[in-house]
Structures are given as C-alpha cells and as structure tokens.
Amino acid sequence: MISRNHTVWRRTERLCRCAGLACAAALAWAALASAARAQEALKFSAPLAINRVSVRCGNPVMAAGRDGVAFAVWDGYDGRGARHVWFAQRAASGQWSEEIALSAAVSGDNCEPSLAVDPKGYPHVVWRARIDGVGQIYYTRRKGDDEPVDEAEILRWSIPNRLDRVEGLNCESARLAFDGEGRPHALWQAGLGSRYAIYAAWAPFKGRWRDFCLSGAGEGAAYCFLPQLVRGGPDILAVWVEADFEGLGLRLRAARAPQTARDAWTPAELASLAGLPADRLPTLLSDVGGRVWALWSDLNGGVFERIVLHTNGDGRLAPRTLIADDRPHAVNRVPAAGPGDPDGFVLCWVIESDGARRIVARSLSPEAAGAGPSVIISDPRDPFVAAPCMAPVPGGAHVAWVSEFASGGDGSVFYSRLVR
Description:
Layout: H1 2-38, E1 48-49, E2 55-64, E3 70-77, E4 83-90, E5 100-101, E6 109-117, E7 123-131, E8 134-141, E9 161-162, E10 170-178, E11 184-192, E12 195-205, E13 208-215, E14 223-232, E15 235-244, E16 249-256, E17 266-267, E18 283-286, E19 292-300, E20 303-309, E21 320-323, E22 331-332, E23 336-341, E24 344-353, E25 356-364, E26 375-376, E27 385-393, E28 396-403, E29 412-417
Antiparallel strand pairs: 1-29, 2-3, 3-4, 4-5, 6-7, 7-8, 8-9, 10-11, 11-12, 12-13, 14-15, 15-16, 16-17, 18-19, 19-20, 20-21, 22-24, 23-24, 24-25, 25-26, 27-28, 28-29
C-alpha cells in the first residue's frame, strides 16, 4: 500500500512539474507576444474632419459606445458668433452624423465638455457655461429609446440641468464618469480669486443629483485645481492638485465616491499616488484590470520625457520612462492614453519641432519592456495641431484632435481610427 501511494505521488509530482513548466512557458510566450505586439508600428486611418457646422473648435473629447459606435463632443462657434458644446456620432459603418449643439438652450459661453457613456451605451455630457462672467456646470444625457421625450428636447437629449448650487462661484474643469453600478459622477473646481475648492455631484437615483464639497472650502483654504475622475476597479476616484500657499508646495489629494445614497465622499490614500510629482500635473487613467496609472512630464536635458507610474502586485511603485524623443528640440505634450487591448496601452501626444506640431501615437506593453515606434497620425503638411483625445476599444482606439490647417484658421476637429 505504501509503495503504491509512493508511485502515485511520484507520478503526480512529475505531472505537476510538467504542468508548471508548461504554465511558465505559456506565461513567457504571452509576455513575448505582448512585447512583440507593442513593438509593431500602429496603423491609423486617414484624418477626417468631422465638424460641418461649428468653427473655431477646441477641447475635443471622445468615447466609445456599443457595437462599433463612437461619440465626440467639442466646443466651437456657430454662424452667429455664439460658442456651444457640439455632439456628433460615428456609426459602425464609419459614417459621422452632422453635429448638433447640446447647449443651444443655455445662454452664455459654453465650453470645456466632458463625455462619458453609461452601461446601456448612451452618451452623457457635462460642460461649463460662462454666464455674466461666472462659470456654471451643466449636464445632459441621451435618452433611451423607451423613454418619453419632452417637446423642448433636441433629438432625445434631455434639457440641460445645472449641477452646481453655490451662487457666485466660478466653476470650471468639469469631468464625468460612471461607477461600477452605472451611476454618473461629476467633478469640477469652483471658487473666486486664489481660493478654489473641488466639488462633486452624483446621481444615486435617476435624474436626482447630490453635490458635495470635497476639499479647499472655507477661510484660508488652499487653491485646488486639475480635478480628475478615474475608475479604479468598481470605484470612482476623484484626484486633484492642492496648492499650499504658505509652504508654496503642491500635493495630490484623492477621495473615493459614495457607494450608497446615504454615503458621502471619503478621503482615499492611494498607493499609486504616493510620491507622484504634483508639480508635473499628472494625467490619470486605469487599465482593464482596474489599476490606476499616471502619466506626467519630466524635464530632462531640454526634452520632456513621458513617465508612466503604476503599482506592482505588492503595492510598490514602478516608475518607468515611457516616451523619450531623441530629437533635441522636441517637446512632448501631455498624452491621451487608454488600453487598446488587454495586453497594453495606446498613447497619442503632440510633438513640436522647428515651430511645427504633429500628433504622434505609440503602443506600449505595460508588463514588458516593449514599445512600438512612434507614428505620425495627423496630416504631415499640417503644422498646427493640438488637444488630442482618445477613446480606447478592445484591439483599437478612436482619436480626435484640433487642427487649423484645412479650414483657413477656423479650427476643425479631425478624427482617425486605429485600424490594426
């Protein structure tokens, strides 16, 4: 009996060892495949202007819907000189709709939109409306096909709803995101002079918003700015920069969104923010695994290098140079980024050399050291491009940016799609 058990154990040990080797080989092969994919040059479709009515456009934002649909919002002027927030939709066939003015019912100067898509695939938008010199935050959403429509609504878009409630404060830099339960969250900065606080609002119940002051309110408060919302797993995290005027220092603050209607925002200590250089104004994003990443600029020898900061499994930081352009006069602007597939990121940014700017893209494997070559996706003849944004989808990405080349200085919104 002992001999038989010993034989069975030895056979099991050999099988486990073989299985372990096979598993290790599979992991190694996956890492090599990921690095190989990252080292491939990206291929993008030819740039296409998607604005037909609006002119002098800026601040484009993109988001991906369902079944190949994509959405874009931006601010721009109509033929009467009024600035509005515009929306256009790309069908799965690749055809773009004519843009509509979402802010037509709001007087004032409408700009700085933010866009998010709910779990059903419908777009939601927030923006700033500057009325009598004071910024206000407005929100609208695309209603579902089964919802009733008001006569005053435009193409199933809800009547714009003002989210900020403190009169007299100048609001700006609105952001929008959805949590794991499909509830919308908005974030913005508001204040006067050198005193700005961070405010948030969310809708635990459909159509009913609650607002909070997260930081920087009250006498002697610090200057809070650069609010960002990022999805970390099922949670929504608010992150902003706080300036201490007495100590002349900058630090990053974070708060976690409420989970129930009775909860409030709670301060969050994120391992991925520890040691992050607030003075570099980082851009935050999350990968398909829910990890929070950060991108920021590091001045080194006259060239801005892109650094990515992420947490390892044990929570320690692993900073790594992401982009380092070898041209001595190149300047890389803050990039747009997102998970183009489960194995890596796609990034785009602006380089500037000899007075000309270009939109450049590159792939990156976060786990491996591989990074693909940079490719120019804007028209090489166009020296005036800015504000790239990206909507990642599995295996691809949608990119938009602003150009002043094709429209004689009127500021067109251009679109390109990752085709590989």
